[in-house]
Amino acid sequence: MPLKKKLENHKAATKSYIHTLCELIGDNPSREGLTKTPNRVSELKDFLYSGYNTNLEEVLDSVFSDGACNEMVIIKNIEFYSMCEHHLLPFFGTISVGYIPNKQVVGISNIAKLVETFARRLQIQENMTTQIADSMMNFLKPKGVMVVCEALHLCMAMRGVSKQNATIITSAVRGLFQKDSRTRTEFMQLVNRQQ
């Protein structure tokens, strides 16, 4: 099936599903406030889950040997928004990524794009943290990587235990960060340093 036809079928299926969902929850999908909702959700789906269509090699393709160093490079507090794969509710927060280059550095915006790539998929925070660290290691071959993610989960705040202020923190540690506690400590001190 041609891609264009496949995309049209996906959009039609999404619109049909949202129309039916409105009926199932007891609302009228034909009322004024809901008539365009299936179209809006179809467009939103393409945005929220665009990470599935992203090529990781292209995301991390901007590397430079000029300026490469043996020192830690950190980009902290990268904002992200993702969708919990268990309840399809948002979780969001910040991610800090540090790495020690091995003869090449990557463009810093590429690290933010990498975070977006994994955030724009159905996710759990633990996997997303690991996927970012593993991708950095696999594609850039640095001496080490550390990723720390801190997030609020609406699936925990809006339902179930209803804890609005509980923050989840996950980390992934690779290479020198894993082997050397001083390197991990330096990363954490720099990330937690007040502006």
Please give a structural write-up:
- Helices cover 44% and strands 24% of the residues.
- The strands form two sheets. It has a five-stranded mixed β-sheet, with helices on both faces. The protein has a two-stranded antiparallel sheet with strand order 1-4.
- It has 195 residues and is an alpha+beta fold.
- The protein has helices at residues 3-24, 37-48, 56-59, 108-119, 125-140, 154-157, 176-179, 181-192; strands spanning 63-64, 73-84, 90-100, 105-106, 122-123, 144-153, 168-175.
- Strand 2 (73-84) and strand 3 (90-100) form a beta hairpin.
Helix and strand run: HHHEEEEHEHEHEHH
Q: How would you characterize the largest beta sheet? A: 5 strands, mixed
Mean pLDDT: 92
H/I helix tally: 8
Q: What is the number of E strands?
A: 7
Gap between N and C termini, in Å? 53 Å
* Helical content (DSSP H or I, runs of 4+): 40-55%
Note the overall shape: globular
Flag low-confidence runs: none
Portion in strands: 15-25%
User: How many whole angstroms does the radius of gyration measure?
Assistant: 20 Å
Q: What labels describe this entry?
A:
195 residues; alpha+beta; five-stranded mixed sheet; two-stranded antiparallel sheet; 8 helices
